[in-house]
Amino acid sequence: EYHKFWFYGKDTPYEKWQLEHVQAAFSGPDCSPLSKACRIADVGGGTGRFASLLRSRLGLEQPVMCVDLSQSMLDEAQALEGVNTLCLGAVEYARVAPREEFDRVLLKEIVHLVPVPDLTEMYKGLFDTLKAGGVCVTVTRPKREIQYPFSQQARAVWEANQVDAAILSDAIKTAGFQVETRTETFPVTMKQADWLSFVENRIWSTFAETNFSNAQLQDTLTEIKQRFPADAGGNITFGEVMVFLRAIKR
Length: 250
What we know:
The chain is α/β, with parallel strands linked by helices. Helix content is 37%, strand content 24%. The protein is globular, with a radius of gyration of 18 Å.
């Protein structure tokens, strides 16, 4: 069910776009070669789908390590070829990760769930698990420069909980990395009904019950319909703004 929602759909242009940008961030003349022998860890990898696709895209010989706190998601990952799994949170994994084990590490859309005081410790552990010349790529969303069709309350919750890229960059540098940050935008067209279903099902932590009661969520849905009306085809359009932080271990 997780993959039926637009942001996690299978074999979509958006999924391909993300793979292309992660591959580009993993590559470059300033880091170790991205070869078939590389070992990759996907921390917060969920169902393992992205890890599996990345392994196939890069032609890797070794399995990708998929680390996640949800065993139910890892149960899906275990069914995929070339994906090993480990049930741990990102900070806990960074504390026990083997030294100089991996060539690349990916954290995709999970750092907003890591407490800010733990960020430097987490990145230091990931620094230690990388080999010299290795790359750690963090994919996240901006704190303020978002374009989602949110209610005012949803935007306030988002800004209160999303970690600013500058804070992430400082933690990454403190951990020992050299880091560069860039922002990319993917143009989104989706059915208004699909967006409303995404919100109503509380797929993002923004809409968790700790932030929205059932009544507040219904008010949010009503406000979204009013502020972001669908076109004649039932669609709404907006930009999916993503931040890529590319950290290199010298």
